[in-house]
Every structure is written in C-alpha cells, then in structure tokens.
Amino acid sequence: MIPIGIKLALNRYCQDNSGYCLKDKVVIVTGAGAGIGASTAYAFAKEGAKVVVADIIEDNVKKVTKRCEEELCAKSLGVHCDVSVDEQCKSLISDTVSKFGTIDVLVNNAGILTFGTLLNADIMEPYDKTLGINLRACVYLTMLATPYLVQTKGNVVNISSILGCTYSGNSKYMPYCISKAGLDHFMFGAALELSPCGVRVNNVCPGPVKTEIFSKAGVTGSWKEIGESFKLTDMSEPEEIADLIVYLASYKARSITGVRYYIDRGHLLMG
Description:
- By secondary structure, the chain is an alpha/beta fold.
- The protein has one domain (about 20-75, about 85-270): 3-Layer(aba) Sandwich (Rossmann fold), CATH 3.40.50.
- The chain is built from 9 helices and 7 strands.
- It has helices spanning about 5-15, 35-45, 60-70, 85-100, 125-150, 175-195, 215, 225-230, 240-250, and strands at about 25-30, 50-55, 75-80, 105-110, 155-160, 200-205, 260-265.
- A 7-stranded parallel beta sheet has the order 3-2-1-4-5-6-7, with helices on both faces.
- The longest helix has 29 residues, at about 125-150.
- It is globular and about 50 Å long.
- It starts with a helix and ends in an 8-residue tail after the last strand.
C-alpha cells in the first residue's frame, strides 16, 4: 500500500513532468520479437517501464529481452507465447503478474498477413488463422488483463491497420482486412465499456511499415517496390509507430480513448 502523501506526490509529478511518466509501469507487448513490437519494447524500456516481451519465436524473445536489460537498463521479462493458444495467453498474464505484481499497459501487436480468395476457394484456412491471431487473441488477452488494468487505471493499445477502413486494391488481402476492421470495432466497444473504470483503449493504424510481415507472407521485392505497390514513395520505420504507441499509453494521452490513430505517410489521402 502506497502512502497517500507519496501518491499525491506521484500525481503531481505526472501532471508537471514533461516526459511520458512511464517509469516502472508494467507493459506487455505481444509480437515483440521483431519489427513494430521490438521497437515498441525498446521505446518503453527507454522510458523506464518494466517490459514484458512476448513472442512466438523464442530466440527473438531472448534477443529483445537482453537488449532491454543490458543496453537500456530496464527490468524485463521474456515470455515465449503463441497468442492463438488460450493457455499460453493465460500464462503470459499470470507470469507478468507473478513477476511484476500488476499490469499497466497491454500492447496487442502480434499479427500475421495471409492471402485467400473466394474464387479460388482458398480463403477459409487463412481467414481462420488470421482472425485467431489478429483479432481473437486481442479480445482474449484484453479480457484477461482487464481486472489488473482496472486496478491500475491502465490502458490498451491495439495495432490495427489502415486496411481496417480502406482496401489495398487486391482482394487477396481480404482475411487481413477483415481482421483489422474487426479489431477497430472491438476497440470501440472495449473503450466504451471500460472508460467508466478509468481504462483507455485505442488503436494505432499504420500504413505499410518496414517489417518482416511481408516476407513472412511471401511478398517479395525491395521496400521501395513494396511501398510503390501501396501508392507510396516510401514506407514507415517501426520506430515511428513505436513512438505513437508510447504516447498513447502515457499520461500525456490521458484524455484519449476510443480513437483510431492513422500513421500512414498520407496513404489514405491518396485514395
């Protein structure tokens, strides 16, 4: 139990401090082994947060956790986790609480890109797999984390996509687009339900970002070629997305909930 005088001092610090006021906050980042997730873990570590690095690739978990601890001097926990498996999601939450005692921020970042079409009758397997990771896991983890977030007046940041509200022009992206549109509507509902409890929920919606999601999906070509396929002359860096995530999770964004934040280099403007 923190004495009331210390609590008041901390509140004044948060209100007066020009930083993000994330020191010692417990932050879970899924899909934190590479790309946006790794950059996000590092960004929170730089702000003094206690970072839980969750990813399906164990070697990546070890690599990111090691950098958080040794280079960035942040307390961290690495958890090997496949977010499509309920028991592993439960373990992620319980391991976090066992290690750090609570949860302040949940970043639902883990996601995959798959392809499928109706005409080729090959949509159902990628659809089920994509929604299981990109949408269902976010709902389930948020549900599991909610009791702790209510206690801490914490928040959730989901990583959606501009493809949740528009389309790439290629129907084969249908499973991915559906998953992100669903994630946006989950955010609206969660923000509405949890706001009376002091818990904020927001979505970050990037355009194309230089991450492994394309190569893992079998997309070939240089970053320039991929960017041009999205009508862009360039793509965002993962660190740009991480900066926005940290802001939304911080005290500075204390009045923001139920919002989609687009970070897409003007892609939506270009139709």
